[in-house]
Amino acid sequence: QMMGPKGFVYMGRIIMLLFGTAKEGGSTSSPSQGSTCMPKTHVVFLKVHKSASSTVMNILFRFGDTRNLSFALPSNGATQLFYPHYFTAAAVQGFSPKKDPQFHIMCHHMRFFQPEVARVMPNTSFYFSILRNPIHLMESSFAYYKGSSAFAKAKNLEEFLNDTSKFYSASTSDSQYAKNLMTFDFGYNHNGNFSAKNVQLMLRAIEAQFDLLLISEYFDESMVLLKEALCWDLDDVVSFPLNSRDNSSKSHLSKDTIEKIKSWNKSDWELYVHFNRTFWEKIDGHMGRERMQQEVRALQQKREQLAKICLQEGGSVAPMKIADPALAPLQYGKAKILGYNIKPGLDRATRQMCQHLVTPELQYSSLLYRKQFPQKTLTPRNPAHLPNLYNRRAV
């Protein structure tokens, strides 16, 4: 039985270290093919770091923007919801404890705490997130968060893993970037006791709270599964990859390093293995592999068509080749984040559609903030000059 949100808050947040609450409302099954279902418009997306989540965020931005839906946006134009602290409803612009939950979409970075989310979002909201293989995630994190406390003095990821006690301190405020990052984002102790019992408690709690867990390594299959669960159209989930790195900044990992990553990120590894299995079980149970392959092909064709219409080079380009500064993604750490150039000569409607597809999250978040809160004024800032990742003011 689910305890009310206020009761959870009163008891204290430490219960999230081991226990979860069954979320209210939301469907755990996908609509069957040919069924008449209503598109879901109340959506909570836990934006896990470095897991193709920026691309998913863009999909949600565009869906809500074109339908004039309301977003649970960070206060004062910040770009994260009180991260790395536990999410609190007070971090949302326009939230009032005197009003019923009134927002449609929540999708900015946060450290998940369901009782506080439930104060902001209706109890019928659809909760989902996306996971990434911890091997790839840590390699990406080392490049992107090279300036973090744990990684700053390590020459490479191998050196860090060979002597973690030398570089890693659990007490630093940014330690999550170097160990069990997904576990942390879901609201659990990334330095905790990962006994089989505790891991099972965590998995059961996440299953109770979330309607769907997607897998970034199977991004197209994930988007098909998402559109089925939300009763959206294929056009709603088509996208271009955002916040992705140039291959030149990616590192090859030895078998020994891979095993050390799995061991060091034990909780994340258990999380990924479990939900990778349930991901394919959902596909088999709800639509089958053959229909999934057909939908994936259709989605890929739509992406290729949009690329021919929108993109000057037909795909992504290196940071120095991005012509429009408004479409330039934030460059951070040692990662080289790719971007896009839009074809010239497009009519206004087509250009706007293309622009929304490739607008980085900081810029798009700022646009939505100005649209939703026109009375608020923000001082524009160059994202390249922003000092850290915590609660940045949008561009």
Automatic annotation (TrEMBL):
Membrane-topology descriptor: Single-pass type II membrane protein
One Gene Ontology MF term: galactosylceramide sulfotransferase activity
Signal sequence annotation: 1-27
Family matches, as InterPro entries: Gal-3-0_sulfotransfrase, P-loop_NTPase
Keywords: Glycoprotein, Golgi apparatus, Membrane, Signal, Signal-anchor, Transferase, Transmembrane, Transmembrane helix
Subcellular location: Golgi apparatus membrane
Pfam families according to UniProt: Gal-3-0_sulfotr
Transmembrane segments: none
SUPFAM superfamilies (alphabetical): P-loop containing nucleoside triphosphate hydrolases
Principal subcellular localisation of the protein: Golgi
Gene3D superfamilies with a match to the protein in the record: P-loop containing nucleotide triphosphate hydrolases (3.40.50.300)
Name by which UniProt lists this protein: Galactose-3-O-sulfotransferase 2
Record organism: Podarcis muralis (Wall lizard)
Upper classification of the organism: Eukaryota, Metazoa, Chordata, Craniata, Vertebrata
